[in-house]
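Justification of computing resources. Each target in the renewal requires a structure prediction run like the one illustrated here; the chain below, 218 residues long, is used simply to show the kind of job we budget for.
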Amino acid sequence: MTARQAALFDLDGVLLDSATAVRSTLAAVATCALGHRVMPDDLPLNALHRPRIEVLALLDVADPDDACDRWWDGALAATPVAPFPGVLTGLLALRAQGTTTGAVTLQDPDRLRWLLPSSVAELLDVVVTRQDAPPKPAPDGLHLALSRVDVPPERAVFVGDSPSDMTAARAVGVVALGAVWGWHPPGALRAAGADHLLHTPTSIGPSLMRHLSLINSA
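Resulting C-alpha cells:
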C-alpha cells in the first residue's frame, strides 16, 4: 500500500492573488489614521516585503498597531481576493491522484473569511494559522499540519513565496518549492534554501506531482 503524501502551501502570493487587496488595505488604514487620502501608489515599492506595521510607520502613522486594530479587517473585506489562474485545477489534480493538500499561513483565522475563497477552502484538507502555531520561519506550523493529516515530512512538499517559507520547509525536512509568481524574487528564495523554483501558478499540479513521484520512488 502506498503511503500518504502531502502538498502544503502558503496562501498569500502562492494560492491567492492577494497583493492588490493587501496594498489597498494598507492605503485605506493609512488614510483613516492620517486623515488624508493615501493611495496604493503612495506605498513604498517593497511594501509587500515588509511587516504591515513597518509600512504604516514609514507613512508616518503614529500608532500602527492601533490603526490595524481599528481599520484593517474592515478595509481588507472591501477588496475581493481570488486564486491565481490554474490554482484550482492544480489542487483538483493533486487530490485526484491521492495527495493530501493543506495551507500554513501567517493570517489570523478570523481574517480567512475575507481572504480565503470557498472554492479554495473546499480543496484543502488542513489549514494552520498563526493562532495554531508560531508563524514561519518557525517550523511549528508545518509540523502541525503534517501531524494533522498524518503524513511524514519526507513525503511532503511545501510551496511558499518568501525566504521564511523556505527556511521553515528546510527545518521540517519537506521539499522546499519557491513560487516565483509571489511577493519575493527568485534569488531570495534560492538563497533561503529552495530545492526547486516553480515559475507559474499553473505549474502547481504537474510540477508537484513530479516532485511527489520522486519522493515515492526514493
